[in-house]
Amino acid sequence: MSDNDKDKAGEIFCSPNAIDFMSSEESDNDDPAPSSGPKPRKVRKLVWEKSKLKNLRAKLDEAYLEGLSERQRRTTAHLSRTEEPSVRPCNGPRWAIRSE
């Protein structure tokens, strides 16, 4: 990750309203649960999110997964992204938030 990406991540995820920048997720009840391990999760789309923030979050997700051990990867919940929008409102920096 570039220093610029790290600065932007810090601006977003160290802010008092950092939770607003996280995708809404819920248990995926349509997907049969595995016999062991965490239940699969559905992640909702953030409709107000600009591509800059979306790309930054993808880089962070990739870096996180690369840092996991093989055992941690096996026991991490499977995420499926949906087109269902999140109803979570957000106020944030102009580079991250799409104006309507």
Percentage of residues in strands: 15-25%
Helical stretch count?
3
Low-confidence stretches: none
Helix and strand content put the structural class at alpha+beta
Give the helices and strands as they follow along the chain.
Answer: HEEHHE
Helix content: 25-40%
SS elements, strand count: 3
Q: State the end-to-end distance.
A: 30 Å
Q: Provide the residue-averaged pLDDT.
A: 80
Strand order of the largest sheet: 1-2-3
- Main sheet properties: 3 strands, mixed
Tell me the number of structural domains.
1
Shape: globular
Calculate Rg over CA atoms. 15 Å
How would you characterize the overall build of this protein?
This protein has a 3-stranded mixed β-sheet with strand order 1-2-3, with no helix packed on it. It is α+β, with helices and mostly antiparallel strands and 100 residues long. The longest helix has 16 residues. It is globular and about 40 Å long. The protein has one domain. The chain starts with a helix and ends in a 15-residue tail after the last strand.
Concise overview:
The protein has 100 residues and is α+β, with helices and mostly antiparallel strands.
Keywords:
single chain; 100 residues; alpha+beta; three-stranded mixed beta sheet; 3 helices
SSE layout:
Layout: H1 3-13, E1 25-27, E2 41-45, H2 51-66, H3 70-74, E3 79-85
Parallel strand pairs: 2-3
Antiparallel strand pairs: 1-2
